[in-house]
Amino acid sequence: MPPELDKEKAMETLVAEIKACKKCLLHASRKNPVPGEGNLDATVMLVGEAPGRWEDEKGRPFVGAAGKLLDRLLALAGLRREEVYIANVLKCRPPGNRDPRPEEVEACTPFLDRQIEIIRPKVIVTLGRHSTKYLFSKAGLSFKKMSDVRGHVYEVELLGLKVLLIPTLHPASALYNPSYRSILESDFDLIGRVVRGAAQPEKPGPKLARERKGTLEEFMV
Ligand code: URA
C-alpha cells in the first residue's frame, strides 16, 4: 500500500478514537472534540494548547481570533495553512478556557504522540508554554519559561524522529498583550528561514545557533 494511504488510514483510526474518547472529564463538557487538521505530509507541524470557544463549536483548530492571527503569522513565514498540520495538546476544550490539568495532559497526549508519528514532520513549532513543556520533556530537554527558549531552534530526537523544535509564544497572548506580536512575527520569520534553509542549526546540541546557510534536507540526512 502507498505510504500516503497508510497515513490516511492511521489518522482516520486515530480521529475516530479521539471522537469516542472518555479518558478524562472534558468529554462531558465539550461540544466537539478538535482532533487537528492539515496536510498529513507536512514538513511543519504546529502544536497549540487546547480548543477554545470557537474551536469547540466548529471541531477545528485555531478558527477563532488567535487562528486569524496564526494565519497571518504563517503567511509571514511563507506558509499556508493547507500545507502544515495543526494540532493541540488537549483535544477537548477545558471549561472557560482554563489551563490544562496534568491528568488531562497525561490522558490526551498519547493522541498527539501518534499524530507526530503519523505525520513525521521535520519541524515542530510549539505555540505557548503547555505544548513547549510537553514536547521539551518528550525530547529530554528542561524547560522553565518561554522567554528562555523562544527565538531558538532545537535539534532533538523525539518519538524516534529527528526534529527541529521551534518554540514560540501562543498567538492568543498577542491578543491580550500587543507587545508580544512583534516577538511572534520575529519567531515566524525565523520559522520561514529555517524551512527555506536560510537559518539552520550550527551543530547538534540542545540549543542551536540561528544562522547558517544550508538546506533543511542537508540537515535532516
Ligand atoms: N488555542 C489553542 O491553543 N488551540 C486552538 O485550537 C485554538 C486556540
Q: What is the CATH architecture descriptor?
A: 3-Layer(aba) Sandwich
Ligand inventory: uracil
Order of SSEs, N→C? Answer: HHEEHHEHEHHEEHHH
What's the overall geometry? globular
Terminal-residue CA separation: 25 Å
Number of domains: 1
Give the quaternary arrangement of the chains: single chain
What is the helix tally?
10
**Low-confidence runs of at least 5 consecutive residues:** 209-215
Give the helix/strand class: alpha/beta
Instruction: Return the CATH topology.
Output: Uracil-DNA Glycosylase, subunit E
- The percent range for helix content is 40-55%
Q: What Rg, in angstroms, do the CA atoms define?
A: 16 Å
> What's the rounded overall pLDDT mean?
91
CATH superfamily: Uracil-DNA glycosylase-like domain
Strand content: 5-15%
Please write the CATH class name: Alpha Beta
Number of strands: 6
